[in-house]
Specification:
mainly alpha
């Protein structure tokens, strides 16, 4: 009978989905007079686990339950260490985080840790970037004898990788008697986090088994590391190599859409969108926002609007992505119409939204609208302008040739103008041929960053347009003396029929260049023929 009662209460704990219900079960356990101590302890431990680990649980309530347990055993300590390591546990006490305090308390009561204790201690050190603390925990692992355990080893690789100790992580990895996919993923993520993309790809190529986390790490890492073309290539390789064994998830789709946006690869982006529809994956706010961003950056504004309008829920990021898409294409009126719609629905714009709106004004030549927008941000929404807002305003006014107003704005900035502010002004001087001011700004930027070739090039362009050839020669001589040249060769990309072609100063595909040369010669011949016809007429 008592065994049946224990099983019934245990079943209720497993089925529980709310703290209200869990508290009722807890009351039933502590008020049941006939439950033996062993049954009571078992049920309290199960309740503690559900309360501490569940998404809907309460760590504070679990802590209260834990404090009432007399003589907690290893399982109870492991539950609490795991709960604190997986959730934000506030400020440290006496310089130590809660999982470490629990671990020390456990040792003081004579309880020895097991292989389930250490991964969460190491996770806490990883989360808090506790380099020295993590080393101490590693020492404890060796002392107790769990350094050969796969799960413990994986947590250490992840810790050393996350803290930037990649050589140590690699030594641990190479010394493992057996590895699983988590071992490989942890080290690959560490390489990608540190920008060592080639090392990550080399390790990826040696893997026999890959899961969706592996592919997501590579695709996202390539995208964030400035290799968007390769990110798309690995996405398609994922389709070919895995068939249905490993399918892309929302993280994969969001990352590859960002890569398409970065390249302006609209055809690839459309294919990913169609794949999303076929796959049955939910197009949530994150994916919807990524699609709006991709279509906007690929020049498909109508498609961006279509996706945006079909989104059932929109957060501020989605609204901002759509405003930014309008801004990119100089559609200032549409951007401000969307702002009005936002305000009507009670969605408050943030500082990023105003960057989009001010950019829309700059690209549309809406000077007065830009001034009003800048004022609206400060006075109505109480958003303190940051340096990038000032850069947008400088860009707007410089494009309009209002240099006196620009100088006044920069002079009264509450923070030091950065390179983007001065760069926007220099761009305006270049556009309007304002040599006198442009010369001052360029010289200031050169003094600020003497190795940046762009400032020298713009200054040369200003002198060339003003026919100041002596000054032009002086700047070029200075560049030569300082060894200033473009470290990254200039390149451009274009997508044709789903293929991204890259043209670079450093060289392009010979076959491709032969085709381009053939087309140019053909156009040249046509122009000569037409010129000859007009000459006769």
């Amino acid at each position: 009978m008592l065994e049946l009662l224990k099983d019934r209460i245990s079943g209720l704990i497993e089925e529980c989905k709310s703290m209200r219900m869990l508290k009722q079960i807890h009351s039933q356990i502590i008020t049941s007079p006939h439950l033996p101590k062993t049954h009571n302890y078992f049920l309290i431990t199960r309740l503690l686990f559900v309360c501490a680990i569940s998404d809907w649980g309460s760590l504070s309530y679990a802590t209260d339950v834990f404090r009432l347990i007399q003589n907690p055993n290893l399982s109870v300590y492991n539950i609490m260490i795991r709960a604190y390591a997986c959730k934000d546990n506030g400020e440290p006490e006496n310089g130590l985080w809660q999982p470490i305090i629990l671990y020390k308390q456990m040792l003081c009561t004579g309880i020895s840790p097991n292989y389930l204790t250490f991964p969460f201690l190491v996770k806490e050190c990883t989360k808090k970037d506790g380099g020295s603390l993590g080393l101490s925990v590693h020492g404890q692992i060796i002392k107790v004898g769990f350094h050969g355990d796969l799960f413990v080893h994986n947590s250490l690789i992840n810790f050393y990788s996350a803290c930037g100790f990649l050589n140590t992580a690699r030594r641990l990895f190479d010394g493992m008697p057996s590895r699983d996919v988590v071992s490989w993923n942890s080290l690959i993520a560490g390489y990608l986090r540190s920008g060592e993309i080639e090392s990550a790809l080399d390790l990826f190529g040696k893997m026999e088994e890959r899961n969706v986390i592996t592919w997501n790490s590579i695709i996202t890492g390539l995208m964030q590391g400035g290799w968007p073309k390769e990110a798309i290539e690995y996405f398609f390789e994922m389709q070919v190599m895995n068939n249905d064994s490993v399918r892309p998830d929302k993280i994969t789709i969001a990352s590859v859409l960002s890569a398409c946006a970065s390249l302006g690869a609209g055809d690839h982006g459309k294919w990913v969108h169609s794949y999303l529809k076929r796959s049955g994956l939910e197009c949530d706010m994150v994916i919807g926002t990524a699609l709006v961003d991709m279509y906007g950056k690929c020049g498909c504004v109508e498609s961006a609007v279509d996706v945006f309008r079909k989104m059932p829920k929109k957060d501020i990021l989605a609204w901002t992505a759509m405003i930014s898409a309008f801004a990119l294409h100089g559609l200032g009126k549409e951007a401000f119409d969307l702002l009005e719609e936002m305000e009507t629905l009670g969605v408050k714009p943030n500082h990023v939204t105003f960057v989009g709106l001010l950019s829309a004004c700059a690209h549309s030549g809406l000077v007065e609208k830009g001034r009003l927008c800048f004022d609206l941000m400060r006075r109505v929404y109480l958003i303190k302008p940051q340096v990038h807002h000032y850069a947008c305003m400088v860009d707007l006014l410089s494009r309009a040739g209002l240099f006196e107003e620009v100088e006044g704005l920069i002079k009264h900035m509450p923070m030091q103008p950065d390179v983007f502010v001065w760069g926007a002004l220099l761009g305006g001087c270049q556009m309007h041929g304002n040599v006198e001011l442009g010369e001052k700004v360029a010289q200031y930027l050169i003094d600020l960053d003497p190795s940046n070739h762009a400032f020298y090039v713009i200054l040369c362009d200003l002198y060339a347009k003003a026919s100041k050839f002596d000054e032009l020669k002086r700047v070029r001589t200075l560049m030569k003396q300082r060894g200033i040249r473009k470290t990254v060769p200039g390149c451009s990309m274009i997508e044709i029929c789903g293929v991204v072609y890259e043209f670079s100063v450093a060289g392009s595909l010979e076959v491709l260049m032969e085709e381009v040369e053939w087309v140019l010669n053909g156009l040249s011949n046509v122009m000569k023929i037409e010129e000859g016809i007009h000459g006769i007429m």
